[in-house]
Write a structure and sequence with these properties.
By secondary structure, this protein is of the alpha/beta class. The protein has two domains: about 10-245, 3-Layer(aba) Sandwich (Aspartate Aminotransferase, domain 2), CATH 3.40.640; about 245-370, Aspartate Aminotransferase, domain 1. Helices cover about 40% and strands about 15% of the residues. The protein is globular. The protein binds pyridoxal-5'-phosphate.
Length: about 375
Amino acid sequence: MMKVPFLNLSAQHAPLRGELDRAIAAVIDNDAFAGGPFVAEFEKQFASFCGTNHTMGVSNGTDALWLALLACGIGAGDDVITVPSTFMATAEAITYSGATPVFVDIDEETYTMDPHRLEQALTSRTKAVIPVHLFGQMADMDPIMEFARAHDLTVIEDAAQAHGAEYKGRRAGSIGHAGCFSFYPGKNLGAFGEAGAVVSNDVGIRDRIRVLRDHGQARKYHHTEIGWNCRMDGIQGAVLSVKLRHLERGNQLRRAHAAHYERLLRAIDEIQTPRVKTHAKHVFHVYAVRIQRRDEVIRVFEENGIGFGVHYPIPVHLQEAYARLGYGEGSFPIAERLAQEFLSLPMYPELTSEQVQLVAETLKECVVEGVPA
Ligand SMILES: *Cc1c(COP(=O)(O)O)cnc(C)c1O
């Protein structure tokens, strides 16, 4: 029996079960399965949540990134700057747009794009920058936007881990030209399956994504360009509308658990807890600590029924799939070192304070006292 699971979606859904069942029944009763009114209603609510004019619901977060790139005119021959410390999808979307991912190393404190390194990655082909709000803390957007303005670049935020996060009072997704979200079940706002969204204040981007996500149709059976099928399901729209009402509260609870972990772990030299910038509102999609000898800690967690994750064990530039980009070990020393050190602890609103304590005590014991061989 797992004492502290890494994720616990059933605990999240149990108190909402009646609301969720009614929302799904309404979709069935209205035959509104692909796109349609429930998606449109969620789009309105999510735009208001993010503080943007528009939301375009799509099939998943990877498609959100891909469509945002296409809608911004990024394609073959272009370079797009992003970070290697992210989920593979950020780079895949760049590759699928026809462009080439170019990486810059991360800031050692926030684990997000280091704006000081943008200059050295700039080429005559650079067209866009994708900062990733890793683990729920936003990248340092002011200098990134300033750099983009100076070089006429598009900024697309990968906000897949940052629903409701803030930077100087502005919400994730609302600062760049477009912001991309995933509603994969385990994200801070999760669907009952696959879903994603692009948010933007730009009417041109909105209109282009609405056409691209629906086979390039400007109206039914009139295809003005080659698109694809990236629509959001009606059921996902309805479920997301229900769960969005509880997102703020969930994020608050995540912050409270993070503060609890911080109190229990901050005095331990062998553990580096997450740093939250004073201008940031962190939403702790992932609570990652940095430790040495991670394999030993993982063994103790497994023996004690404590869930964990590693986000991510291999930085994207060292993935076999991207060998052709020609980056070797040592290209991005901070990303590479942190990939060895990160250990994600259980983090979700429904964690109990006893569970946080048990995880922290177990971790503390094995890094301070060492692990019996
Ligand atoms: C989850 C995630 C994605 C991809 O979203 P999907 O909905 O799984 O396609 C992209 N970028 C980051 C940083 C993510 O965490």
